[in-house]
């Protein structure tokens, strides 16, 4: 029993150096364990990244595209605009964004105004959780 206590104390003393071996010796979970985030799945996280990229670069890409397609300005400026568009990230395009449900990340059957799938929308509307939505009665 004394041997086990001494070994544990030695592990505690070595824990100051914070090596992975010492972490497992102390019973601490390793740092590469999965962490949860606020997205339902990886597709939704990818969609959020694309939306942030569009928010950051979308205006510039739109302006460069207008310069590139303008026939009145000189060719040198159009070529510069071509190079600038080439340097912008691909995700800075509106067509790369997929409408997904914010709760389930379902890509089809979404109600655009609330950004929810038809299934989640119906469930929330049934229990009066959406403002301004009523069941149809006639």
Automatic annotation (TrEMBL):
Keywords of the record: Ribonucleoprotein, Ribosomal protein
Source superkingdom: Eukaryota
InterPro entries in the cross-refs: Ribosomal_uS14
Pfam families given in the database record: Ribosomal_S14
GO term, biological process aspect, one: translation
A GO term, aspect molecular function: structural constituent of ribosome
GO CC term (a single one): mitochondrial small ribosomal subunit
PANTHER family: 30S RIBOSOMAL PROTEIN S14 (PTHR19836), SMALL RIBOSOMAL SUBUNIT PROTEIN US14M (PTHR19836:SF19)
Family indicated by similarity: Belongs to the universal ribosomal protein uS14 family.
Protein name, as recorded: 28S ribosomal protein S14, mitochondrial
Species annotation: Acyrthosiphon pisum
Gene (UniProt): 100168896
